[in-house]
Amino acid sequence: MNIKNYMVQLGQNARAAARSIAAASSGQKNQALLAMAEQLDLDRELLKQANQLDMQAGRDKGLDAAMLDRLALGDSGIDSMIEGLRQVAGLADPCGEISDMNFRPSGIKVGKMRVPLGVVGIIYESRPNVTIDAASLCLKSGNATILRGGSEAIHSNQAIAACIKSGLVAAGLPETAVQVVETTDRQAVAELITMPAYVDVIVPRGGKSLIERVSRDAKVAVIKHLDGICHVYIDDKADLDKAFDIALNAKTHRYGVCNAMETLLVQQDIAAEILPRLAAAYWDKQVELRVCSQTMAILAPLAGSPSLLLAASDSDWDEEYLAPILAIKLVQDLNQAMDHIAQHSSGHTETIVSQDYSRVQTFLAQVDSASVMANASTRFADGFEYGLGAEIGISTDKIHARGPVGLEGLTSQKWIVFGDGHIRA
Amino acid sequence: MNIKNYMVQLGQNARAAARSIAAASSGQKNQALLAMAEQLDLDRELLKQANQLDMQAGRDKGLDAAMLDRLALGDSGIDSMIEGLRQVAGLADPCGEISDMNFRPSGIKVGKMRVPLGVVGIIYESRPNVTIDAASLCLKSGNATILRGGSEAIHSNQAIAACIKSGLVAAGLPETAVQVVETTDRQAVAELITMPAYVDVIVPRGGKSLIERVSRDAKVAVIKHLDGICHVYIDDKADLDKAFDIALNAKTHRYGVCNAMETLLVQQDIAAEILPRLAAAYWDKQVELRVCSQTMAILAPLAGSPSLLLAASDSDWDEEYLAPILAIKLVQDLNQAMDHIAQHSSGHTETIVSQDYSRVQTFLAQVDSASVMANASTRFADGFEYGLGAEIGISTDKIHARGPVGLEGLTSQKWIVFGDGHIRA
B148, B162, B210, B155: which is closest to B14 by C-alpha? Predict the structure, then answer.
């Protein structure tokens, strides 16, 4: 198989299908989504058999337990995909929305219309359910999609792809509106991210190395996030009970997620009051604290288990632990906290805990991250919590889509003009 | 001079200044803009002397008349820059705008806040007034800027840069908020477009080869347009008087502009009625017509001057003439017109002329260009005509900014969250 020719063919198919999908009605798109859900339900046994092939190959290849877990697709996984499709069918169609329509002095009426991006390429790793998640969001937003899943999930993904095709056909839409790459050759990714004639945007979903590679080599726009080094700043004007709840929740609600707090900044005057209480709660959950020298002076006398209290090194302020580990640093004031965030944040999510009106306003206005919060846990930075209905990813870029990316992030706005024979004078 | 080190230094300066500019009040930014205007007025003689150095060097280098004309800066050019600065000072500040603020079931309130992109790099050619245009729009939208003008305008640009610095300092803003690259070494461009750590977006302004080169090599987002291959489609349900006015205006109002029509599509049943009238008007203005065979059959008997009527070759449908030349093709219906546009348009601006409600709706919804119009001249695709107040460029990309890019296109939206001790359950 000539991979380049194959990918160009997929690209041409997608570009042609994109026009049909962009012109499809909301009803037709929803019909396709619901038909996919039905087909998944009918094909349960086929899907599980295909997944068993992947699982066996994975075990033979020596994949670790976590990877095998992500790869597994059973009835509950199939139920989730079906439920996801129905939810996306229930979301409002972002396309066709007209906004900012105004008469201009020339007499023309100018506004904006929301339209699909065109062709979206998705590159992801082992979870087969991403195939349905990504396909459904792209379809609902009127885009054609080329999906490139992990090689270890190839059989599962092909079985899911068959259900997707069947749903598209049932709704009278071109089956090439969603194409799942059928080769595991890595060159397919290299081609996919360097075909600006056929692909408008790439969404890589997976580990940091995948995302870095895709971003470095792509010749089309990439919606991505690399790191979630999120901060909570507890101000001296904070309500310390709220601060306790938020700092505990932001770190310990879930450890392996991008919107978990990785560094806690505490105004120095209240540190002796809040930190012992927080440290006890963290240690209770076996969270390791890596702390600045001032924090060490406060916590060292209290540390029951010295293995959970360490002096922070410089690199700790730039690390995304994704684990029960937290860096803690004292700061003199809001400005020093914002300086630290400007220097070390990955631009994902930061929170101030403070009852002071002006400081909250300053923090919200000046901190340059995708989500900036006051008196709420960083864990809220999420498409569902924000009301997007679903999310294709979280972007730490500033261009195009920022933060949780839902259907709207897969669209763009064109200008529309109504005249009645108007010409430029 | 080590160009790489020099550019990194500019980048670091800009990144640091971006935080100050983002935090500056609207009043402070306006003060800086007005102080720049005053300084330009005071420095008229210096500016004209600097420009004379460039003009002399240009003549010595053998620049053609058109390039020398673009390079020239006299009192009227200085007046325009001053007026431009005052206009930008008068525009609404896009930053800080909060939208879509809603309570979520969790109790948090979530919305979006408009914020600067950060650091904008502008690469342009001979016109020195772009230095002021670009600097003022970037400053007003809260961004730091690195400007790289054409080497032939280096003295003019440095003199303008001195006025910009003086304005920034007068308003208490860092003078590194706007930096004009002081070397004419081409490596400076190569460095500027590959410093994602220091530059958030690049706006190239100039000829197609510059823009292609920048787009190909850039490692940061680029807001650009390459071509304006704009179409007017005259439907058989058109008001032919409106169609005549629009088709004439779209081609002949100005020839060298990106929003001029380059191809006219005419529904075949009305061609014999509208085309002779239009052709006479075009020929009257010495516009050369390059036409399909059906059009040729209609126009050949009428052509007084055969040199202004030619058979179109395949390449004519993909050419941006920027000249008194127009391609004309007959089509069977709206669908064939939209097919032609999908295949040959550069995605800039297209117009349908029709009184038919459904066809207008279809054209507006389905044509995938930055501006899609009904019954109006393509010449309206312009930041001023759309009410943006000013434009930094016109984008034919779909990601981030599309069509005329004003202050808003130089900003992004972050999410803001108000809680009151809220945590994820």
Answer: B148
